[in-house]
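Exercise: predict the structure of this protein bound to zinc ion.
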Amino acid sequence: MFKIGDRVDHIEYGEGEIVSYNTEKDSATVSFNKEHLILAGKITDTDNYFEDNRVLEKTSFIEVHTATLDRVTNCYSCKKHLTSVSGPTCEKCKWIVCDCKACGCNYKKPKNVLNQV
Ligand SMILES: [Zn+2]
Ligand SMILES: [Zn+2]
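Solution:
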C-alpha cells in the first residue's frame, strides 16, 4: 500500500512523490521530478460516433498503476536512495542491502531519552 507523500520510483518515469491515490483503480497520481510526454484526454467511442481527444502533453503529474511503482527509502547509514529493485536483500532481516553494506542487522534504533531512568 502507498500513501500520499510517499517517495516512489517508477520503472519508466523515475522518482517522484504521490499526490493522490485511487484505491478503486489501484492507481496513484505522482508528481515526478522530471516532466514527461504522456497522452492526456480521452477517446469517445460509441456505435455511431468516434472522437479521439488525446493530445501529447508534457507534465510531471502522471497517473500510474501502483504495480509499476517502487517505494523509495533512504539508507540510514549513507542516506543514499534505495528501491526494492536496486539491490539484494539481507537473508536475516529482509532489508535491502545498500552499496555501503548497511542492512537492518546493524541498524541501531535511536534511544528514547525520556524512557531512560
Ligand atoms: Zn548506504
Ligand atoms: Zn541484515
